């Protein structure tokens, strides 16, 4: 039995002074990742870009010294990155950014999204948890249930919605009331717009901050969606300033969080809930993806990533909308999403 305790790790790191901010490593928000597996503890400290090599090494040594004697840890890796620290989750006052990096440029007159009844952000704190796959699966299931559904692929650095719907090429544009609007693609009754269907050779990965936000907002407003019951917005993964700014800019009516059930992913998913709370966007629920695997040989079910739950204080608790297994069928995003779609509808109506 391992005596490992995450609380003990956090408490040990709380005793390490962060010379860069005069606070401790935890309250300074330096801990950007923590994983523990079979005695191996791996933590990532996110340091500001101006950190010198010496400062980084000192912090790493201090963190290693604090953790080295903790029970249950047989191997320790303290890694440094110079990314911006994630915004702290437990801020008491609603900490809206005092300036919006991309001032709302919603154009006057005809709006492509004027007939969109509801918009819902599908978000994940981490990349690769299946957010786009789940968005596509939900969209298809909701459309099959008779709703008019659209998908806006706002995952600008890794647009995977086109391939999930078998789309390639470029979207056309059309004049509507003297404005040139994007004509969405349509597959299985779902209207789709993605940056991957708008750009040519220019790689969207080079776009930064306000440029990305601006492009996504314009895709939302400058598309001829027609009448939609629900537009799902596949958000870029993460809980940092770009995602916060985007949520603030496009102001979806609600959000759902997709996560896998590992402790660390759930810890980050909590940050995702906090991010939407900061900008007053209600979170309708969370979706557990890749929850279990059924062995094709013996038929027994395994919870590969454990039984984690998204823990939030009772007054901020959000429901789990459903669990999806790790399977080729789910990857395909064509079947298996009906129950999830119904659970979501139950929360939206
Ligand atoms: N339930 C599942 N079972 C099996 N494979 C899955 C499942 N969900 C997603 N996948 C696979 O996991 C990979 C990542 O999925 P996806 O691209 O949807 O993640 P994402 O969270 O949108 O990633 P990113 O935000 O980084 O683009 C894909 O190969 C996808 O086919």
From TrEMBL:
Family: Belongs to the Mrp/NBP35 ATP-binding proteins family.
Record flagged with keyword Iron: yes
Sequence ranges of Basic and acidic residues compositional bias: 95-108
Domain MIP18 family-like: 6-75
Alphabetized CDD domains for the sequence: Mrp_NBP35
Coiled coil start-end: none
Alphabetically ordered keywords of this record: ATP-binding, Hydrolase, Iron, Iron-sulfur, Metal-binding, Nucleotide-binding
InterPro entries: FSCA_dom_sf, MIP18-like, Mrp/NBP35_ATP-bd, NUBPL-like, P-loop_NTPase, YlxH/NBP35
Reported function: Binds and transfers iron-sulfur (Fe-S) clusters to target apoproteins. Can hydrolyze ATP.
Pfam family membership, one: FeS_assembly_P
Residues where ATP binds: 125-132
Location of the region described as Disordered in the Swiss-Prot/TrEMBL record: 87-113
UniProt subunit comment: Homodimer.
Protein name: Iron-sulfur cluster carrier protein
